[in-house]
Amino acid sequence: MEPARKPLLTERVMDHVRTSVVDGSMVPDHMYSFYQLSEDLGISRTPVRDALLRLQDAGLVVIKKNRGFLIKRTRPEDVAEIFGIRIALEVPAARRAALWRADEFTQVADELRAGMVAAAELDDEKLFFAYDQRLHGLILDTALMGRGRTVIDNLRTNTRLLGASTAGDARDYSSILTEHDPIIGAVVAGDPAGAGEAMRAHLETTAVLLIEQALHRAGEDGDPQGLWAALGTGFIAG
Q1: What is the DSSP letter of 61?
Q2: Cα 97–chain centre separation
Q3: CB 117 within 8 A of CB 177
Q4: Nearest Cα residue to 37 out of 20, 54, 23
Q5: I need a labelling partner for 58 at 20 to 30 A (CA). Which of 49, 146, 157, 167 fits?
Q6: Torsion of CA 112, 114, 118, 119, to 10 degrees
Q7: In Å, how far are 60, 102, 120, 196 from 193, measured between CA atoms?
Q8: Closest by alpha carbon to 116, among 183, 54, 56?
Q9: pLDDT per residue as tens, the chain (238 positions)
């Protein structure tokens, strides 16, 4: 039974680390022990090692030989790279979803949007962005990009190191919902060009806000829009 269980245990460790990063119980620049993690989860060292190697490949952790592992801090340059990758994957995904949507897409998308609205009314950021992630995942799944969804989920975990969310004074819940509406509408209408452009606009807005957060946390001065314009070259429309 061990060969069949090992992947499940590896996924459990990966999920634990991702969740710990999101809720703040694991933070950047602190050395964590392989052995302590194994003991805390009641899992042998082999799946723990395998999970951390996979998370290192995904850019979430850095393994220090014979010492342990660190959660990788996300820099402004990392944000630009992450959103360049997201644009490269999610813009064509939106176009493909508009071409290949099934009848149930509208119902599921409406349910997820309603969940975002309800979470906003409760001022529950964690729940709001869980629905946000599921909505983006729905578009990737509709586009038959399951591997792409895994990549995007890992990248979103990286950006969560910058803070709880991009909701705040610069962009409230209503603004975020407004950015999603044209994406959903274009997919439902079967408009691939419109879906792609709406997705690009949404991701670029988010990129600039997260670059601003990263600059602030690093204590650096800079122009977030200008930095994105420089580092996002090749991904930015026009």
Answers
A1: E
A2: 19
A3: yes
A4: 20
A5: 167
A6: 30
A7: 33, 18, 29, 5
A8: 183
A9: 344 455 689 889 988 988 888 777 898 889 999 999 999 999 999 999 999 998 888 777 899 988 899 998 778 888 888 899 999 999 999 999 999 998 899 999 999 999 999 999 999 988 998 999 999 999 999 999 999 999 998 888 777 755 545 555 557 899 999 999 999 999 999 999 999 999 999 999 999 988 887 787 667 777 888 889 887 777 776 4
Amino acid at 67: R
CA angle 174, 198, 191 (to 5 degrees): 125
Question: How many C-beta atoms surround the C-beta of residue 219 within 10 A?
Answer: 6
Strands in 16-137 per DSSP E: 61-64, 68-71
Looking only at Cα atoms, what is the longest distance across the chain? 55
Tokens 């071409």, residue? 99
Residue 162, SS3?
coil
Distance CA 183, CA 202 (A): 9
Look at the block and give the residue holding tokens 């644009």: 87
